Amino acid sequence: MTGTVPDLKEQAKKKAAVAAVDEHVKDGMILGVGSGSTIVYAVERLVERVEQEKLKVVCIPTSFQAHQLIVQNKLLLGSLDTTPILDCAIDGADEVDSDLTLIKGGGGCQTQEKIVASCARKLVIVADYTKDSKTLGEQYKKIPIEIIPLSHVPVSLKISDRFGGKTQLRMGKMKAGPVVSDNGNFIIDWFFPEGITDWKSVHEYIKLIPGVVETGLFVNMAEMAYFGLSDGSVKTVTK
Ligand SMILES: O=C(CO)[C@H](O)[C@H](O)COP(=O)(O)O
């Protein structure tokens, strides 16, 4: 047999992204553009539709990566200063539970992603089948938390004292020292213990620790999720 076997997971990401863009993007809309590898497929599809259908879509980035995708693909770049109310935001996720509670921030962009999502009339998630869980922690074991750099030791202690588990300062690859977020902050990954169910309370507790900028827990934010499945179909979950 010749040729390469298509990567099922990449195909699944693409299917989910295309379905979401086809169903939610409309002419004249203000669209939040998420971050991560699945979003690259969403932007590809958006570019096709903008060119073929001559759509006018103003794109609000959720990260430096999203900003680059918008600019490099010559999409219309907007900002929250000029368009603080969005029709829709399309974004990826690291894990999605059956209530559409999300873990985000695998790429360290959760703060801007959450700001943009909070300004959108609806948040639509695109992901492959490995992100679709009944409860958080089935597949993804950590919550990314953006923090002010000098607070990393006390914040880490306060989280593990209250909830258990362990924290890790996210370190750079090809760079000595910690990852620096798009906002100039550090990221702690909290490897949470099993058995947590009330993620809203967990988010609220952590968010109030001085030094915490934002958690990667998105509770009651997503309205719909598209999961590309390994058989080539797309599963949708609506809140
Ligand atoms: O939250 C994110 C970045 O902060 C991403 O949306 C999340 O990590 C999913 O990424 P991918 O589509 O590459 O799996």
Automatic annotation (TrEMBL):
Keywords: Isomerase. One of its GO terms (cellular component) is cytoplasm. Its EC number is 5.3.1.6. This is ribose-5-phosphate isomerase. GO terms for biological process: D-ribose metabolic process; pentose-phosphate shunt, non-oxidative branch. GO terms for molecular function: ribose-5-phosphate isomerase activity. PANTHER family: RIBOSE-5-PHOSPHATE ISOMERASE (PTHR11934). Belongs to the ribose 5-phosphate isomerase family. It comes from the Eukaryota. It is an enzyme of class 5 (isomerase).
